[in-house]
């Protein structure tokens, strides 16, 4: 059951015992599960559960660009399509992609592009389709993280993975990984993403009120959290190959429905 009904938010975002409403400490991440190779028809794919967020990412490419006029003669293009299903949020979301989805698609594309060697693929495109099945705050960060994993699963040459998380401020305290209710009822939200080949931020957004010192401290907290999530991404990628090696991977069906 959602915590917000008719836009009435809880008065306090910390419990009497000092924990957040979902029982977490200030620097604790929500439970995260990741898996790669989940969409058979894609060149690469990944699935992520991050708290109540459930997100698929599927990658296709390099392939012809449609519409053709978007193709560039000097480099490949990256196209990201972030979408929330109509049933992913408490109030029905219109099925047509809205301004928010277009903005988030653009942000994710900007986050991922620095790690790709697009100059090696002139005239082609890489397409990343992201479907948010269930949403509960931080979907742009979770989507960036799962999209990077899907690109790696597709074997697209990358300088490194990209990892993303949001920090923020609730009831005057700095916290890591805002849930949906904390995002809405808190004072500030600071989503960021790290490209690991140069340890630089490829995303930094800010919404709310914080002092410069608080922003610095939030980025320190975010860096610690990002390292933990990065380790999970690497583990998920390795697991696919360990399963193949150990013969425990799920056999893929061929087009006639039999096993390959
Ligand atoms: O998901 P993210 O925090 O990156 O983006 P947001 O625009 O700050 O949205 C925060 C949360 O609001 C989402 O994760 C959803 O849980 C919720 N939301 C919603 O309930 N209905 C929408 N149409 C859009 C977002």
User: Cα-atom Rg, whole angstroms?
Assistant: 19 Å
Q: Compute the number of strand runs.
A: 10
Helical content stands at 25-40%
Q: Look at the structure and give the CATH class.
A: Alpha Beta
Content-based structural category: alpha+beta
Shape: globular
What is the average per-residue confidence, as pLDDT, rounded to a whole number?
93
What would you give as the CATH superfamily? Answer: GHMP Kinase, N-terminal domain
Spell the H/E element sequence: EEEEHEHEEHEEEH
- Low-confidence parts: none
The small molecules bound here are: cytidine-5'-diphosphate
Largest sheet: 5 strands, mixed
- Determine the CATH topology: Ribosomal Protein S5, domain 2
Can you put this structure into words, describing what you see?
This protein has helices at 99-112, 139-153, 180-185, 212-246, and strands at 32-36, 44-50, 53-64, 77-84, 124-134, 162-170, 173-176, 188-195, 200-204, 207-208. By secondary structure, the chain is an alpha+beta fold. It has a single domain (32-240), classed as Ribosomal Protein S5, domain 2 (2-Layer Sandwich). The strands form two sheets. A five-stranded mixed sheet has the order 1-2-3-5-4. Strand 4 (77-84), helix 1 (99-112) and strand 5 (124-134) form a beta-alpha-beta unit. The protein starts with 31 loop residues before the first strand and ends in a 14-residue tail after the last helix. The mean pLDDT is 93. It binds cytidine-5'-diphosphate. Cytidine-5'-diphosphate is lined by residues 89-90, 93, 100, 135-140, 180, 183.
